[in-house]
Automatic annotation (TrEMBL):
Keywords assigned: Magnesium, Transferase
Name of this protein: 2-phospho-L-lactate transferase
Keyword Magnesium applies: yes
InterPro entries: CofD, CofD-like_dom_sf, FbiA/CofD
GO molecular function annotations of the record: transferase activity
Length: 325
C-alpha cells in the first residue's frame, strides 16, 4: 500500500508515527510543511521537516515534541554572552549539526528535497519504506502582522517563528502572509506520490500554518482533488481547542472558527470544491457530524487523542478500514 501523509511538525510527526505503526509494511511518503522555515544566524532551519525526521528516526525529544533527544544548549549560551540576537529560537547543540549540513548543501546548490533525503538517510535508514519530501524546494516563509502602536499603521510584521516562539502567539494575529507561496513549485515527487497513492491522509496539524501552506503550493490542491485514492482528513481541533499547539490563535485570522466542523468545512469535500472525501472528528465533536454529513462531507467520529503511536494507530486504522470497506 502507498500512503501519502500531509504533515506539519509536532502534531504531524505524532500522527505519522501512528500511521507507520498502523501500516508497518506500507510505503509512506510524508509531504512536510516548509512555510515556517527560517534563516537564523545564517543557518537554514526547517522546523517541521526536522521534527518529522527526528521523531520518526528515534532521535527526537518526545516530551518537548521538537528538537533532539539529549540536547544541550552551550552554543546558544555563547551567542547570548556575545549579545548576538536572536537567542529566542531553540538552537540546540546537536540540532546545529543538522542546520549546518543543510545550509552547506543548499549553498552548494543542492535542492531542499535532495538535502532532506540525505539528512533522512541517517535517521530513516532502518525504514526504507518511509520518505520525507518538503512541500516545495522553493523558499516560503510565513509572516504575521501584529499590533504595534509605535509602528506606521499601528502594526508590524514579524516572522512566524518570532510570533510563535518568542511571543508565544500572544499578540493578535491581524494578518498572515506566506511569502513565496505563489511562485513555489511542488518538490519533485510530491504530485507523483499523490497520484500513485492508495490513501492520502491530511494530518491533524495546524490548518493555518502547516496544512494550509502545503495545500497552497500551486498544483497540490488540484493533485488532491484528482487523486484516485480516498483523501481522509483528521481534525487537530478537539472540543474547540487544538489537541497540541496554538492553532486557536491563528484560525480566526483566516476567518475559520476554532471548531472541528469549521475546519472540516474549510478543507471542504471533494464533491464540492474541497479536498476531502472523509473528515474525522473527535468523540467530543460527535454532535457536529450529522450537519457535516448533511452538507456533503462524510464524517467519522473517533477518539483522536494522540497519547501514543499505538493510540494513534488505532484511530488511523479503524477509519481507513471503514473508508476502504
Ligand atoms: C501542534 C501543531 O503542530 P503541527 O502543525 O506542526 O503539526 C501546531 O504547531 O499547531
Amino acid at each position: 500500500m502507498q500512503i501519502v501523509v500531509l504533515a506539519g511538525g509536532v502534531g504531524g510527526s505524532r500522527f505519522t508515527a501512528g500511521v507507520r505503526r498502523a501500516y508497518p509494511d506500507a510505503t509512506i511518503t510524508v509531504v512536510g510543511n516548509t512555510a515556517d522555515d527560517i534563516t537564523i544566524h545564517g543557518l537554514r532551519v526547517c522546523p517541521d521537516l526536522d521534527t518529522l525526521m527526528y521523531t520518526l528516526g528515534g532521535g527526537g525529544d518526545a516530551e518537548r515534541g521538537w528538537g533532539r533527544l539529549d540536547e544541550s544548549w552551550r552554543a546558544i549560551e555563547e551567542l547570548r554572552a556575545y549579545g548576538a540576537e536572536p537567542t529566542w529560537f531553540g538552537l540546540g547543540d546537536r540540532d546545529l549539526g543538522t542546520h549546518l549540513v543543510r545550509t552547506e548543501l543548499l549553498a552548494a546548490g543542492v535542492p531542499l528535497s535532495e538535502v532532506t533525503a540525505r539528512l533522512c538517510a541517517r535517521w530513516w535508514a532502518h525504514d526504507p519504506g518511509l520518505r520525507l519530501l518538503p512541500m516545495t524546494d522553493d523558499p516560503v516563509e510565513t509572516y504575521v502582522d501584529i499590533p504595534d502602536a509605535d509602528a506606521p499603521g499601528g502594526r508590524r510584521s514579524v516572522h512566524f517563528q518570532e510570533y510563535w516562539v518568542r511571543l508565544h502567539a500572544g499578540p493578535e494575529a491581524l494578518a498572515l502572509r506566506q511569502v513565496g507561496i505563489e511562485a513555489a513549485r511542488p518538490a519533485p515527487g510530491v504530485l507523483e506520490a499523490v497520484a500513485a497513492a492508495d490513501l492520502v491522509l491530511v494530518g491533524p496539524s495546524n490548518p493555518v500554518v502547516s496544512i494550509g501552506p502545503i495545500l497552497a503550493v500551486p498544483g497540490v490542491r488540484e493533485a488532491l482533488r484528482s487523486a484516485p485514492a480516498p483523501v481522509l482528513g483528521f481534525s487537530g481541533i478537539l472540543h474547540g481547542a487544538p489537541v497540541l499547539g496554538m492553532a486557536h490563535r491563528l484560525l480566526p485570522t483566516i476567518g475559520v472558527a476554532v471548531d472541528a466542523a469549521a475546519v472540516g468545512r474549510h478543507y471542504g469535500s471533494r464533491r464540492a470544491d474541497g479536498v476531502l472525501d472523509t473528515w474525522v472528528v473527535d468523540t467530543a465533536d460527535a454532535g457536529s457530524a450529522p450537519a457535516l454529513e448533511a452538507d456533503g462531507l462524510p464524517t467519522l467520529v473517533r477518539d483522536l487523542v494522540m497519547s501514543s503511536p499505538d493510540a494513534t494507530a488505532v484511530f488511523v486504522r479503524s477509519t481507513v478500514d471503514q473508508v476502504l470497506a
